[in-house]
User: Which sequence fits this backbone?
């Protein structure tokens, strides 16, 4: 088991740094945007750095340096410039992890950080060598006195547009993901009301037929004591598929419509989670879709006893603002379902009406049966002669707390990713404006001295770059609508694009003024 902030959860095998990184990427869109923004930012930095070495490399080449030695010297200077930042990041991260999570988590952090650092160093070497090759001077170019500023500017412009496109996409996607994560976190937090509820593990190798009577006595006594609660998301079981594979979410939505899940529960569970029954509206069987009626009828003989009657449960719809609290079919306790519009089947006397072998025992082994008082439950288990079969109580609230913390961390990463992507776009926009102004500094000086305003000097550049950014914004809107099906986030993209256009305009005018001042003061 692994322990985190008071929550005990099962650990599935030995985890490696690549496992941690893979889980982060698979489980959170924000991590992908963080990695992409880091890649684009690194590319912009290395591109500008490689271009800035052009003059010194030309001098060293004319003094007899070979091209391989130029590469080695430049990579050595890059390593010397970068290693303090890498060490500082490791020290800061180690201090934070020690303060918040202790030594064990700090070791995991350092291993993961070292793995990421190795990958980043490899990528940096590849990018640096590739960009240095672009700016490798030749005797012909040196004799023609052509600098590499135009190449730097064109490459930086391309990287800037990529960064802006990524920022325009990352903000709505990350905000949407953060909203969903926070909403699910609030749903998970509701399970803290069930701190006393536990599930039990069952020995896998036992003769079920031999102990059916013992289980029946356990369930009857637990229900009599008022501690037996059931929560079971069974919507996927009611969906018909052509093969043996599990139904997709699209199939579930299509066959259960207008509901998104079907949940079997008991009054004890509703009381345990403080479910407001005012949000539960009774519905008659005949008002259900015919396919759902047939599916419930097919399973009735499996889930319920013969003497349970034709309607062994009451059916309700849910109109609460949050999701209905329910558990998925999972051996891991605390695997929460997030049904917003479920069909709820409330069974009043499960020990009497429900099939022991067909439902109650599987419900117990899958973690969907809860006991609201562990001491009373252990007495009932012992009295039923099952204490050598049922063991290891797990608190559902602890597992839900762990999931809640994961969702909180995911929301934080999503928001941080959006902010980092925007900052990357801002940095690249500023760099692009600064490089253009430096390249055209003499023309700016002459034209401004002749009486033209900074706006007139930078107008053409400004209009061209704003036009490119508008094209990028249109592309981001199209991708967000067609690929991610999020038309509601289009206003966010438009507002962000306008903000980038305003920043680009301000950066270009500011860089023009700075370039004029530098030439005037002979600060080239």
Assistant:
């Amino acid at each position: 088991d692994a322990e985190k902030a008071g929550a005990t959860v099962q650990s599935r095998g030995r985890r490696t740094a690549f496992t941690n990184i893979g889980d982060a990427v698979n489980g959170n869109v924000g991590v992908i945007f963080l990695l992409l923004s880091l890649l684009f930012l690194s590319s912009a930095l290395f591109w500008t750095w490689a271009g800035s070495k052009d003059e010194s490399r030309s001098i060293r080449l004319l003094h007899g340096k070979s091209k391989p030695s130029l590469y080695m010297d430049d990579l050595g200077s890059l390593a010397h410039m970068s290693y303090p930042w890498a060490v500082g990041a490791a020290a800061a991260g180690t201090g934070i992890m020690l303060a918040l999570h202790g030594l064990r988590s700090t070791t995991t952090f350092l291993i993961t950080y070292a793995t990421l650092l190795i990958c980043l160093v490899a990528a940096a070497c590849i990018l640096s060598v590739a960009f240095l090759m672009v700016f490798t001077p030749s005797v012909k170019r040196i004799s023609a006195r052509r600098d590499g500023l135009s190449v730097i500017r064109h490459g930086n412009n391309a990287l800037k547009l990529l960064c802006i496109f990524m920022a325009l996409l990352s903000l709505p996607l990350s905000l949407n993901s953060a909203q969903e994560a926070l909403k699910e976190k609030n749903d998970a937090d509701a399970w803290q009301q069930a701190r006393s509820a536990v599930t039990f593990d069952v020995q896998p190798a036992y003769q079920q037929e031999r102990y059916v009577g013992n289980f029946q006595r356990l369930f009857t006594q637990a229900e009599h004591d008022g501690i037996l609660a059931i929560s079971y998301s069974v919507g996927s079981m009611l969906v018909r598929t052509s093969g043996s594979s599990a139904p997709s979410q699209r199939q579930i939505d299509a066959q259960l419509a207008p509901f998104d899940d079907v949940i079997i529960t008991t009054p004890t569970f509703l009381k345990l989670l403080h479910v407001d029954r005012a949000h539960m509206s009774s519905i008659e069987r005949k008002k259900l879709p015919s396919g759902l009626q047939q599916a419930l009828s097919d399973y009735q003989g499996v889930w319920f006893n013969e003497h349970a009657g034709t309607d062994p449960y009451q059916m309700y719809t849910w109109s609460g603002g949050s999701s209905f609290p329910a558990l998925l079919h999972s051996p891991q306790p605390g695997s929460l379902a997030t049904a917003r519009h479920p069909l709820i089947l409330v069974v009043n006397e499960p020990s009497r009406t429900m099939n022991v072998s067909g439902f109650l025992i599987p419900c117990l082994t899958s973690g969907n049966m809860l006991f609201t008082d562990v001491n009373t439950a252990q007495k009932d288990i012992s009295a039923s002669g099952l204490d050598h079969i049922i063991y290891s109580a797990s608190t559902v609230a602890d597992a839900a707390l762990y999931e809640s913390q994961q969702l909180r961390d995911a929301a934080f990463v999503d928001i941080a990713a959006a902010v980092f992507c925007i900052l990357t776009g801002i940095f690249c926009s500023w760099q692009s404006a600064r490089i253009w102004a430096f390249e055209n500094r003499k023309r700016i000086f002459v034209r401004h001295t002749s009486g033209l305003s900074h706006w007139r000097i930078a107008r053409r550049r400004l209009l061209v770059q704003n036009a490119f950014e508008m094209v990028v914004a249109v592309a981001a809107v199209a991708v967000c609508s067609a690929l991610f099906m999020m038309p509601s986030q289009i206003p966010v993209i438009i507002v962000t694009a306008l903000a980038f256009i305003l920043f680009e305009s301000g950066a270009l005018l500011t860089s023009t003024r700075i370039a004029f001042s530098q030439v005037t003061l002979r600060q080239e």
Remarks:
- Residues 1-15 have pLDDT under 50 and may be disordered.
- The two ends are 63 Å apart (CA to CA).
